[in-house]
Fold:
Amino acid sequence: MAGTDSIYMTVNLADSVVSLEISGVTVHTCKITKIRTSKIFRTGDESTISGMFGNPLNIINDYSTIRKEPLMIKTAPRDTSEYRPDIIPDTSYIEPAGYILETDRNVRIFIYQEETATLHDKLSLFRFDLNDRIRSAWKSLKRIIIFRVPEYQPYIKIRVSKSDARILYRALPLNGQIAVYL
Structure:
């Protein structure tokens, strides 16, 4: 990943740190406040886990409560006398930050904000989680109907601060890469 010029994310579960890097240079680091992982990562075979995380994970899909690129509409001034600096508050911080990154090796990485101060935040994250569970159940049911075994999708759930969650999600490219260290 260090050979590419794209931004990528490294998740270090041993040190409880998530970093954004470009060409091997760390540009943003944040502390993980809470970690939950699938049981396979704690009790699984070392060779299986090292095979799974030996190469970077490629993001193939994501689901989020926030927009990837916030939209701001600005009217350009006709000349310098009409220019006024922006003093409008940023309204993109209303919705809580939570997202799921699905990778090419069926590992799902859930990143949620730590702060859930209001009832609206809790309900929004609950609905987001419920929709994900319904989507996963529907995928499994479709596989059962055609007599296939449902896919096992191990997960990593982490909590970071609200601002860091937004920075991480918006900085990653659409088909970005993630390196996970256990």
In short: The mean pLDDT is 85. The CA atoms of residues 87 and 126 lie 33 Å apart. The helical segments are 39-43, 46-53, 119-145, 162-171. The domain at 7-66+92-181 is CATH 2.40.440.10 (L,D-transpeptidase catalytic domain-like).
